[in-house]
Amino acid sequence: MILADSNIWIDHFHAPDQELLHQLGGQHIVVHSFVVGELAVGPLRNRQRVLADFAFLPRLREAQASEVMAMIENRKLFNRGIGWTDAHLLAACLIAPGTLLWTRDVRLGTIAASFSLRASLP
User: pTM of the entire structure?
Assistant: First the structure.
């Protein structure tokens, strides 16, 4: 499974991303409520439809705050340029074996790659 970060979706909403469409067609994309939430607070065209469409995608289990805090400490993720949402996405991938994170964020991508969690997609 592939968790697409909000930057993947934002780029797709500006210009259709053929790779995202391909992965969606193959039913490889999962969502996280933090990604949906980030998109929901932004300027979405066809807002109601887009948000409704997300309800049809499989959702990853969210890590508890205590699990995310433990991951941050154990893997020394503090002061590495990622935020709380990024940490939650990493934790969600870690607790769902086989799930990769697709992001265009350089810092998050570097950390995801160091955990062997980065999806190698454009």
Answer: 0.93
